[in-house]
């Protein structure tokens, strides 16, 4: 049985997939379409990754294209840079978010800079996949939200999927990008299921760096990405029972930011709440609040409010539910916007 036949037999054209399986199918499709696409990382081969996102890929594509690496994140990314310079499209898995910091030097000083350094002569089409955020009761270094380190780094594209359909398309779009992409995957959403049309033509996909209104509303704009999108949709459903209407925007791309979709929503509602798992202080919400205030000052009915984690190291699992933003904290922020 060929690889394509095996994929088709396992997954119908349109079906319900978990986010993890949608990523797997997206990776598989990219590898089928381009023999230069490689997958590499700790335990991505025989084990299929700790979250089984790469399950079955080494079996179908071989050890030369799905590579189990040593436990050395700096070496993994450095090797991917060398492979990209030789014409390959490496997809690197960082096993857990907190493990990316040993690779920061390679990402920030090499991966992000090569195109500028070579005056555009060279590009590094490397995707760095990072399972991010909490909600799984993990130990220290396994539940971080490091997105602002990379959105602050010029030369990197930074995206975050929040649902299976986006996971399937965005991973393929990221692999096709000529620039390096930091790809955040919300680990607590890996097992969420939703319909995914794997037969849809790429021309019909939402562009990689386009934000999307996932819940239209009139009273408050709620901005989120990755794991918090689902929480904000739950908040929208809760306030609807009180006669209020939230417009939930899934940013999807953090750099570049689709500010026009954000501005159009805030100008219509006049109120805005930004939600993310990372600490509020110097978090991505601070940039959003500043940009919105600059663009929408005369249309705002209240200050832009931010909901996020606390400025502490990520706590032990028993305290996780108190640290992470939840439905009540989002609803509290929504209520406070109406106090002005």
UniProtKB/TrEMBL annotation:
Residues of the Transketolase-like pyrimidine-binding domain: 17-192
- Give one Pfam hit by family name: Transketolase_C
| Keywords attached to this entry | Oxidoreductase, Thiamine pyrophosphate
Would I find Oxidoreductase among this entry's keywords?
Answer: yes
Q: Which cofactor does it need?
A: thiamine diphosphate
Gene3D superfamilies from the UniProt entry:
3.40.50.920, 3.40.50.970
Q: Which InterPro entries match?
A: THDP-binding (IPR029061), Transketo_C/PFOR_II (IPR009014), Transketolase-like_Pyr-bd (IPR005475), Transketolase_C (IPR033248)
Q: This chain belongs to which protein, by name?
A: Alpha-ketoacid dehydrogenase subunit beta
**Organism annotation:** Actinomadura miaoliensis
């Amino acid at each position: 049985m060929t690889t394509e036949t095996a994929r088709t037999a396992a997954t119908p054209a349109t079906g319900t997939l978990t986010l993890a399986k949608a990523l797997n199918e997206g990776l598989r499709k990219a590898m089928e379409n381009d023999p230069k696409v490689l997958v590499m990382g700790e335990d991505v081969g025989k084990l299929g990754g700790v979250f089984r996102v790469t399950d079955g890929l080494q079996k179908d594509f071989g050890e030369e294209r799905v590579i189990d690496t040593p436990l050395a994140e700096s070496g993994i990314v450095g090797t991917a840079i060398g492979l990209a310079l030789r014409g390959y499209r490496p997809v690197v898995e960082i096993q857990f978010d907190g493990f990316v910091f040993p690779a920061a030097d390679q990402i920030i000083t090499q991966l992000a800079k090569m195109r500028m350094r070579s005056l555009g002569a060279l590009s590094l089409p490397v995707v760095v996949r990072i399972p991010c955020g909490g909600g799984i009761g993990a130990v220290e270094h396994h539940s971080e939200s490091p997105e602002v380190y990379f959105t602050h780094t010029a030369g990197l594209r930074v995206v975050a999927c929040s649902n299976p359909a986006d996971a399937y398309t965005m991973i393929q779009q990221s692999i096709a990008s000529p620039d390096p992409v930091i790809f955040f995957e919300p680990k607590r959403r890996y097992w969420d299921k939703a319909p995914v049309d794997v037969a849809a033509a790429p021309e019909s996909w939402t562009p990689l760096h386009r934000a999307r209104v996932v819940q239209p509303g009139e009273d408050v704009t709620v901005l989120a990405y990755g794991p918090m999108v689902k929480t904000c949709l739950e908040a929208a459903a809760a306030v609807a029972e009180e006669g209020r209407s939230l417009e939930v925007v899934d940013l999807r791309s953090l750099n570049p930011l689709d500010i026009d979709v954000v501005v159009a929503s805030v100008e219509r509602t006049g109120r805005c709440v930004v939600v993310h798992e990372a600490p509020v202080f110097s978090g991505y919400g601070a940039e959003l609040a500043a940009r919105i205030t600059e663009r929408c000052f005369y249309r705002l009915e209240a200050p832009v409010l931010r909901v996020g984690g606390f400025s502490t190291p990520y706590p032990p699992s028993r305290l996780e539910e108190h640290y992470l933003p939840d439905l009540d904290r989002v609803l509290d922020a929504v209520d406070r916007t109406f106090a002005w």
